[in-house]
User: Fold these one by one.
Assistant:
Number 1:
Amino acid sequence: MTSKSYVVQMNANGLHGHGVVNGKAAGGAPRGRQGNDVHQVSVNTGPHHAAKARSRRQRWDVRPSEMAVKTRNPIRAIVDGMKLTPNPEKAMIALSIGDPTVFGNLPTDDSVHQALKQAVESQRYNGYAPSIGYQKSREAVANFYNSPLAPLEAKDVVLTSGCSQAIELCINVLSNPGDNILIPCPGFSLYKTIAVAVGVNVKLYNLLPKQSWEVDLEHLESLIDEKTSCLVLTNPSNPCGSVYSKEHLQGILKLASKHCLPILADEIYGDMVFPGCTFHSLATLSSDVPILSCGGLAKRWLVPGWRMGWILIHDRNNVFGSEIRQGLVKLTQVILGACTLVQGALESILLNTPQHFYHSTTSFLKANSEICFKELSTVPGLTPVMPSGAMYIMVGIDIDHFPGFENDVDFTERMVMEQSVFCLPTTVFDYPNYFRIVVTVPEEMMLEACARIRQFCQHHYRPHSQDSSELDQ
Ligand SMILES: *Cc1c(COP(=O)(O)O)cnc(C)c1O
């Protein structure tokens, strides 16, 4: 991309004027404002009129906004409230963190690393990119995900700061305050965090653990009303590790089609499925339901810190039309999303990551899941559900057989105190009495953790739920 076309595109996108300093922005940080805004600000708040007319305050009273107060990440809210004091005699094993890089056993591929190095050294990616991302990088994503069943071009791709921002933009472009979105239960907590902060309601549709966490379609349909702005589907799933069959996805699409409901498909774990399983991207199965598919580099390429995500706009019947696309573009103009260095590396990453890298990651995840599933299947009071993809395994707690504990939060808290093993209680996903284990940990650590979980359960398990007299013996 030449620097000339770069400048032209910046202007065409209505982005910030270079060199314009907004006097109100602390530290003069560019905020993506247009020159116009600066002009208006100085007209409306000129120093001569402001001081007298508006100063009614007698004392300091600075409070967080309603939006800040309403913004709540349930993982932090619940985990930070837990008493997590490990047993000093046992090294802590955290099976709770959904970051595949923390143990150092799953580095990204060297080609990914090299691509970023080259982008840095080229010195071509130090400036602002268009708010939706460089044309070339968007083209690379479009080519990577293009398929005859769901064609994609660069114009259908918006680059974002991680998949999280992609999800945020999609919810915001489709929903007004008072609308509702349908989200999975158990499900990734970010959807609710984003929605509630902007006054959008959430309705939780049930997933069925006995059917490999498929969607309860009847329940889902019963929740749809005229205020429903979109259906959020996570496939493969965090926290469940489930991967839906073609038939099941078709069933969901049929409902969406019947009720004219657009879908936000969170496919950050797309293709991250165990050898032997098949991932079907939702858009390849429908020719009428408009779908915003969100993804990114974080999980499949094992670089969550690089903050590269994307929205793929699938809209073959022109339901979204230009208005939704324009809406997305406008939302990206508030804060430029994707880091330009990673954008510069993106084409090379998508072209050059070898198949064996993807395969070795998913083989590892499968092997580790099988170890965990096998070990915990024979632990009294626990019911693990074997995953087919992503990086998690859900484990049910037969809480009636653990009279010493009230719920999953209590249970996992005590497991830290006694065994120094921390599993995430699924109350953080609005779904009690399970815990989620991250299967990216090294194999020896997984084995050790499972042995300690077994010890813990053997100690606290009571065959008959009413028999609570031996408590704390
Ligand atoms: C990790 C994750 C994301 C967020 O991805 P980032 O690119 O790190 O923002 C989104 N959705 C699900 C289901 C995830 O597990």
Note: The two ends are 72 Å apart (CA to CA).
Number 2:
Amino acid sequence: MKPNGTSLNTPSNGAASNGIHLNGHKNGHATHGLSDELVDEMGDNHALANLETPLRPDAFDLDDDLKIDLIEAHFREIMTILGLDLTDDSLKGTPRRVAKMYVNETFKGLNPANKPSTTLFDNKYQYNQMLVERDITVQSYCEHHFVPIIGKAHVAYISSGKVIGLSKLNRIVQYYAKRPQVQERLTMQIADELKRALQTDDVAVIIDAAHLCVSTRGVNDTASSTLTAAYSGKFEDEATKQEFLKYVGMAKPTM
Ligand SMILES: [Zn+2]
């Protein structure tokens, strides 16, 4: 499928360019004619159409090395358009560094090939209480502004007879975080994967995170954080939910 308005040139003509190319500008505004004001507002509106990350059908037709070469060329253009002198020693490696960071680190979780494999073990101890893994580091990227979302996730499950290695809980969080995200979708994707991996509906996920698009631009609020939660199965039961919230330090204060 041919991308619309973008040029997926091979590096032979794309990555080698030093000048400014405004490829695709004739095809109209990148946001298909929406006003700047509306685009800003949509960046604050977290209406979710779908639990799945919106990916193109040809998302993985290009291999990672080619993606890095192409992103490098395009990022060089962005810097050039901003007026930066890419012959400067400090700047000249930046396009490649950013491209490698996007593909190998920041957005690594887009590729299903990087999904952590989970092995189920029998719950030998017959431990049938909830297991809570709290304060899991969340480092994600806002898909509306391409700046970081940084915070913590608390996840819990009640074993259906099977358990997974504890570090897998962290890895599942990390995998879905390493994508352009909105926090609501990230929360639900983690909950869904926990249900699938643990073969139970009894899971809970809370994410408490600061969005750099809120703290470093726009409203510039450095104090606020955003909380999202997904409860299913036994965690929809108020007593179970409160027990989980107590363990993660978020329970209602009792009078
Ligand atoms: Zn944002």
Note: The longest strand covers residues 130-142.
Number 3:
Amino acid sequence: MTTTTHHWPQRTAHLLNLLLMLVLAGTGFYIHRPLVGGLMGLARYAHIVAAFVLLVNLAWRIYYAFLGQYKDAREFKPQLQALPRQIRYYLFLSNHEVKQGLYNPLQRLAYLGVIILLILQGILGFALGWPQGIMGFLANGLGLAEIRALHYLFTWFFITFVIIHLYLVLTETPQAFLEMFWGERRERNKTSAATRSSTTTSK
Ligand code: HEM
Ligand code: HEM
């Protein structure tokens, strides 16, 4: 018996997200402050294309979470009551992690937060790129300079999330790193069965 914790549709969407975020952050910083000249047109074009692909990927991922073959929306359901105990665990005040299902209560909040932040970042991006378009009311209400500053601030939120995300994955569940990228199937043994619940397939 083997266990698959992250199925290929989820893994592909995650990898695509990661690559697109690299392109968006790279081109975004260039648009913010071009260190070498002559690439602004390309940077803007790549930023917009990557942004569209990211938003389509996000929409598809949300759809898949609810209606896909390996739907996993329940893994993201907030567990606010268990949150203080999980925070105690992260602060080294308790040895017991609270984990029901694939993600602990803090992971669930962080992932939901990132999804909401991506949607907000997209809305700000549309207001920036098309101030007369569908998000024009934002450009009129807040002002383009403010929207630009918020879009830039959110970029730093994403960078902070990824640094903490990487640190926690590598220190807490290094095996999840392999599962997320290469879809490695772990042998079902006492430890994995006790710490993670997931779809079980026979080989
Ligand atoms: C999700 C959809 C997104 C859309 C539609 C979008 C759109 C835009 C647009 C239209 C601009 C202005 C470009 C110009 O001045 O010509 C911009 C700038 C920028 N974007 Fe995005 N973007 C998106 C996501 C992201 C993400 C995820 C990041 C970071 C990882 C990011 C980082 C930046 C940065 C740093 C700038 C420069 C802001 C400044 O000038 O201070 N964007 N974006
Ligand atoms: C080098 C970069 C990254 C690595 C190594 C990484 C690794 C991982 C791993 C191992 C998991 C599964 C955690 C577990 O099972 O306990 C995960 C989940 C997740 N990661 Fe990342 N990640 C990276 C970048 C990103 C980025 C850039 C985003 C978002 C913009 C992101 C968003 C998520 C989300 C939302 C989940 C929940 C699972 C899912 O989406 O199916 N990650 N990541």
Note: Residues 10, 14, 17-18, 21, 102-103, 111, 114, 162, 165-166, 169, 173, 176-177, 180 surround protoporphyrin IX containing FE (ligand 2) (CB under 6 Å).
